[in-house]
Amino acid sequence: MTTLTARGRGHATASSRPRAARRTARLRESLVGWGFAAPNLVLMTLFLFIPIVWALILSLQETKGFGDPEWVGVDNYAKLVGDPVFWQSLANTIVFTIATVPIELAGGLGLAVLLNSVLPARGVFRTIIVLPMVISGVASGMIAVILFYESNGLLNKVLTAIGLGPVAWQSQGVPAMISVVIAAIWLRIGFNMIIYLAGLQNISPELYEAARIDGASRWQQFRSVTVPLVGPSTFFLLIMNVIASFQVFDLIFVMTGGGPGNATSVLVTYAYRNGFQIREQGYGAAIGIVILVITLAFTFIQWKTSRTRDLAE
Amino acid sequence: MKLSSKRMLGAAAVVTAGSLVLTGCAGFGGGGEEGGDQALTFTTWGSEAEEASFTELIDQFEAEHDGAEVKLNVVPYDQMFSNIDAQLSSGDAPDLFRVDYGNLGVYSSQGQLLDLSPYFDNAEVDEFVPAMWEAVSYEGVPYGVPHQTDVSAVLVNTAMVEQAGIDPSTLPQTQEDAWTWQEFADVAEQLRASLPADKYPFVYNWQLGGAPRWLSWLFQADGTFLDGSTATIDSAEGEQALDFTKSFFENDWVPPTSSTKGTVYADSLFTEGTAAMAFIGSFLVPDVDYLAEFEWTAIPMPRDVRGATDLGGNALVATKDTDNPDLAAEFLKFMTSADAMSLFCANTNELPTRLDLEGDAVQFVIRPDVMPVFVDQAATIEPSDVKQLTSPAMAAVNTALQDQLEAAFIGGQSTADTLSNLSAAIEEAAQ
């Protein structure tokens, strides 16, 4: 881009109509910008903005998805306020987010630091940790079902073998929530590790050298050099993980279906249940809009308050 | 970085082409417009045996009807109805599809299906079991053909009951000697006493969308749940049915994971040997025959005031906007002809819906010895059951049953609260 600007300027001084030439150059520059942004914009408009507006319209209707829709205004939202399962699903989503995100972040950073050092066979470890990321969510959910299967799953067999007795992974609320949290962490920690690894490799070794000369211990180096300097990665991952946790669906849908009772029902599984199983698409869309508003609000607050998001050396 | 206008034009062309390709994708799996004017698209889900039978019958139909072409599209059951819903809403539905009797009401009440009354005269209608013709009708108008039915009966792992001291030769075989609820409870108690803690006397098939199968207990107690748009479930019969089924969990007669929101099918728990008996539909007989590594037999469902079972099976329907309504109706007629239905049911262990195929007319391919129990059991379905089970409210009633029964079975919700919640949900759905 710099070349283009410089060329434009050079051309402008030689021209007899400098202002017009400058305008052409600027127009050209912005066209180039739009050219680069266009493919993404087209895709986002098609698959993001139009569906969002559509969902908003749908949330103001009562419709089964086919047949004649009926306009009901904000009735669906009014119904949400008085729906205990919606509030429980929201609470479950928050619990799920609070339980997964900090462990995913801390675990991802820990693994990244470990695998950034001279660990034997670290290539193998990196591959193993990242592997769940490349498997589809549904397939991972199926694997998790086999592991947590209550009557003769692997985990309960191991627990029984070491004398601890089986855990009611599928028939009691708290163990069921723990099982989906464990599975979610297993799935996502690899992604966090990769982003942190990239972040770590951007930190200059001289900083650690300087810290060591100043007498900083290993922990102090980690606390005062590593953690602040991976700030941009942390900011990015925090947003991504919170959004992912708020939008968790495939894993819970496959593992527990939102049960037992509504113990693992989260906003998206509840939206799916209403939209596609009960066929109250308007109500399902209203829940979808609530998820959108919450994630936008969180991202906005985080954006405004984070001090380390743009921190670089 | 230099970017000539030629390149920019190229980039713009790529973007436009890309978006054109993407818009083109939107119509995948669509319906009516493909092929010639004698072409039909038919979307269904199905087991291997079902798919093979559909293919065989379609070939036969095409051979008998010059120029006719039926394109079979087999999709996974999980995606069947969200696909159909999306295709209906985008005006791209197939000409024909398969639908269970519970979901049929949703489509017929929303005016999405072809009215078949001009195509079937009274004599043809009279060839079907009246309750099954009722199942495809909405406000007296037929919107599909009853292709097959299947009902649940009880499969028994003979070795496991024998170990509990029950002689397999004394097991009931017909509706006349079916166990009463009390006799069934005694057997469950006897099995519980002899089985280890991680094995269970039986498992009921109300998981994964099967919650309406609970209604068999309500019907056995001579109860109802819907009368027009009034909920009738909050009754003495409802209380009796709910208390009895709650006791399955309280007494550890069923696996704790097998509640209405369980994610494991009853037949899996049976074939893996976790449960000694299982309530299972006849369509699963081939699967159980293949998977179970033990001897098993089938016995009738227990009965209380009357016998009852669930209304399984599926209808075939044509969509209202099909380009070939005459040919579509012809295909539906062909699929429910005596020969075609007999072939389909024999290969898939499903039950016919025609009066001339009742009794032992169908020669089932797999485990023909256990099929008379299912045929016999099907006769316990009464037209009044069918009327309730095919109401357009059924999809919402299904979800209410899942939630409320789960809360009652393992969430400790009282019988009174459960029935009153169910009553409210059913009433709302039926409005």
Automatic annotation (TrEMBL), chain A:
It is found in: Cell membrane. The chain crosses the membrane at residues 31-57, 94-115, 127-149, 176-198, 225-246, 252-272, 284-303. It comes from Agromyces kandeliae. One of its GO terms (cellular component) is plasma membrane. It is a multi-pass membrane protein. Residues 90-302 form the ABC transmembrane type-1 domain. The keyword Phosphoprotein does not apply. CDD domains: TM_PBP2. Keywords: Cell membrane, Membrane, Transmembrane, Transmembrane helix, Transport. Belongs to the binding-protein-dependent transport system permease family. Its main location: membrane. Pfam families: BPD_transp_1. This is ABC transporter permease subunit. It comes from the Bacteria. One of its GO terms (biological process) is transmembrane transport.
